[in-house]
Amino acid sequence: MKKTFGFLFATALVTVASYNANAQASTDEIPADMNALMQKYTCIACHRPNQRLVGPAYKDVAKKNYTNEKIVELIYNPVPSNWPGYPPMAPMKQVPKEDALKLATWINSLDGTPGGGAKKPAAKKPATKKS
Ligand code: HEC
């Protein structure tokens, strides 16, 4: 039931955004609380933990070793040149900082661990400051 809703929701959003994405990508590996945020802020339409959709797989974002704070910044001000071959992500400034940080912490926890290794602490390497 919940899954069906998620699928329909994602499909609708992807259709609205008129991207030809594979909306059938599994949402199974998303923890319930993160799934709720992903639905609420529509990230689910374009992102999956382990799979490229419209946007990059979060595990590939995790591999970039951003700090959680840097990811929050990128949610508010995406840098499309970080992801050649993808359409640009719209700035998601409607996400409250607190929720953005929760998503960022989870995204970082996906680093190289299949199935979403939530146990692993987020990578804390200093972010490459470009600006
Ligand atoms: C309409 C599709 C879409 C939605 C909705 C969307 N994204 Fe993205 N996202 C993308 C695309 C495409 C990229 C790669 C291009 C870019 O960064 O602009 C991306 C990139 C990212 C990155 C990597 C940034 C970087 O520079 O490395 C993060 C983190 C991210 N998204 C998180 C989120 C979160 C969290 C949400 C929900 C609050 C969200 N996205 C909603 C499409 C989307």
Automatic annotation (TrEMBL):
Residues 108-131 are annotated as: Disordered. Residues 121-131 have a biased composition (Basic residues). Keywords: Electron transport, Heme, Iron, Metal-binding, Signal, Transport. Residues 28-111 form the Cytochrome c domain. Residues 1-23 form the signal peptide. The keyword Repeat does not apply. One of its GO terms (molecular function) is electron transfer activity. This is Cytochrome c, class I. It comes from Fibrisoma limi BUZ 3.
